[in-house]
Every structure is written in structure tokens, then in C-alpha cells.
Design a protein that fits this description.
Elements (H helix, E strand, L loop, with lengths): L1 E9 L16 H13 L6 E2 L8 E11 L5 H11 L4 E9 L11 E10 L1 E2 L7 E2 L11 E3 L5 H9 L3 E4 L29 E12 L2 E8 L6 H13 L8 H7 L14 E7 L13
Parallel strand pairs: 3-12, 5-8
Antiparallel strand pairs: 1-3, 1-4, 2-3, 5-11, 5-12, 6-7, 9-10, 10-11
Helix pairs in contact: 1-2, 3-4
Length: 282
């Protein structure tokens, strides 16, 4: 048996999330069908996490085992020939037997992109922009004028180890949460204690871009953070309120849930001992 790691990029707009659902198009089902077509083996690829309906990925990771020997370059080429254009395999790598796309995760990076519909400048009337239909499926077309400086201040206070219950889904689906990698916690269920290594918001390519790296994320956690940051940017919440929101351990203390189409899974990092094997099956 050979253990494989795939790095994937996909447009989440046509799909009902990562996880297989009866009668609905999903990333996992498309990948499963492609692997079966190429190799003749029925496997269920495991993702690093389950992205929701409409959420995109620049660097999702999946793992699975095969009994048939196949060179990595052949597997990569064959899968991309079979998969729909909205899903691309960026890399196919043979891995040590212990590697698992979800259980081996060290940290993840997400990005959220906001199109500012209304732009304001001191002493000038607000300018309203129109979001292109070619951009709309990939951003939040946000109707409020937003101030960047307070959003930057609020985003920075999320760094560190915190209980993120206030930023989890109010009716959390336990199967949708990523597994905890915190020392001393169980790995078979959700844990609200997460470590955020970086949390920044900047203007880039005419968009507001929130970028966050952490040990793990609860269901809707990034989207709830972004909704709260936009409330800060439109002066509905003070930038200094983030610590009290965290301390409340209550979803109602935070802002709204940002829509899914602006969210991207950018990168998944693993410990050094999970490096790809030098030689794959021949």
C-alpha cells in the first residue's frame, strides 16, 4: 500500500462543500470518482478540513492509500485530465504511512476577501462601486464603508491562545469542525481553545484581505471573525471590544457571519517528519 498526499486548488462556487452528500456535487465526491477512474480503486480521500458550500481553496490537502503502483507524475497528470476544470491537483506526493491530511496538520492559513462597495475619503462624498459579475462569486460585496485602521487593531488582538467559542457557529455541527492540535487536548473532537499565530487585514488588489494562520479553526470561525471585523470597520463595535467578546464565550457577543464566497483555504502546514518520500511507486 502506498500513502498519497494531494495538494488541491478549487473553485467552491459549483459545489456543496468538501464532504460527500447524497445527490449533491462536492469536492470529495469528484475527487473520489476521479481516483477510481484513474486507478480502479475505491478510496475515500480525507481532507485537511471540510470547507463549506461556496468556499474556495488555493492549497487544500487530501490523503488516501492505493495498492496499485503509479508514478507521481502520472497520477497528477491523469487526475487533472479527469477532474472538472474547477478542481486542479497542484501536486501528488508519496508520503510516509503515518501521514494523514487531517490528523497530521500543524497549522492552516485562511484568507477572506472583501470588495468595498462604498469608498469614503475625508471631505468627499462616498463613491459607490459596482462589483463585477466575474468577481462577485469570489468576494463579499460589502455594502458598508469600512475604516481599515480600527480593523487592523481588532485583528491583531486575536493573536495568541484563546477560547474562540464566541466565534464558533451558534448551532455548531460537530462533524464540520477541524480537529484540535493543542497540547494536552483530545484529538477526536472539537476544542474551542485555538492558537492564532498571525491575524492581519490589509488592502490588496483593490480588496480588503483578512489573513489568519492558526493551529485549528472552529466551524464558521473565520467567517464570524470577518463579520465582527466589518462591524468594527463600520463603527458598530469598538476595536478594543475583541477581548470582551472572547471572554463572553457566547456567539451572540460577536458580529454576523460573513458570506462563504469570500473565504479561501490558502495553505496547510505539516511537521517536518511528514515530508514526502524521495521516491514514489514505479
Amino acid at each position: 500500500m502506498s500513502n498519497w498526499k494531494l495538494t488541491l486548488s478549487y473553485d467552491g462556487a459549483p459545489y456543496h462543500g468538501w464532504q460527500i452528500q447524497p445527490g449533491l456535487p462536492t469536492i470529495q465526491s469528484a475527487l473520489q470518482q476521479a481516483i477510481a477512474y484513474v486507478t480502479g480503486e475505491a478510496v475515500l480521500p480525507q481532507g485537511s478540513g471540510r470547507t463549506d458550500t461556496g468556499v474556495h481553496a488555493l492549497g487544500q490537502v487530501a490523503s488516501f492509500t492505493l495498492s496499485v503502483p503509479i508514478p507521481a507524475t502520472n497520477l497528477l497528470r491523469a487526475l487533472n485530465r479527469v477532474l472538472p476544470p474547477s478542481i486542479r491537483v497542484l501536486a501528488a506526493q508519496p508520503m510516509p504511512p503515518a501521514f494523514h491530511a487531517r490528523h497530521s496538520v500543524l497549522q492552516k492559513t485562511y484568507e477572506y476577501r472583501i470588495f468595498e462597495r462604498r469608498i469614503t475619503q475625508p471631505g468627499l462624498p462616498a463613491v459607490e462601486r459596482i462589483c463585477s459579475p466575474f468577481l462577485a462569486p469570489y468576494v463579499w460585496d460589502c455594502r458598508w464603508p469600512l475604516s481599515l485602521a480600527p480593523m487592523e487593531q481588532a485583528a491583531a488582538t486575536l493573536c495568541g491562545i484563546h477560547d474562540f467559542t464566541s466565534f464558533a457557529a451558534s448551532d455548531p455541527d460537530l462533524t464540520q469542525r477541524t480537529q484540535s492540535t493543542e497540547p494536552g487536548t483530545k484529538s477526536d473532537g472539537p476544542n474551542p481553545i485555538k492558537t492564532i499565530h498571525a491575524s492581519t487585514i490589509t488592502r490588496r488588489d483593490d480588496l480588503l484581505v483578512y489573513r489568519v494562520t492558526g493551529s485549528g479553526f472552529l466551524h464558521h470561525m473565520v467567517r464570524n471573525i470577518v463579520g465582527t471585523l466589518t462591524d468594527v470597520g463600520r463603527d458598530a463595535i469598538a476595536p478594543t471590544a475583541i477581548p470582551s467578546i472572547l471572554a463572553a464565550h457566547n456567539r451572540s457577543a460577536a458580529g454576523p457571519t460573513a458570506p462563504p464566497q469570500g473565504l479561501y483555504l490558502v495553505q496547510v502546514d505539516y511537521p517536518p517528519h511528514t515530508e514526502p518520500l524521495a521516491d514514489g511507486p514505479q
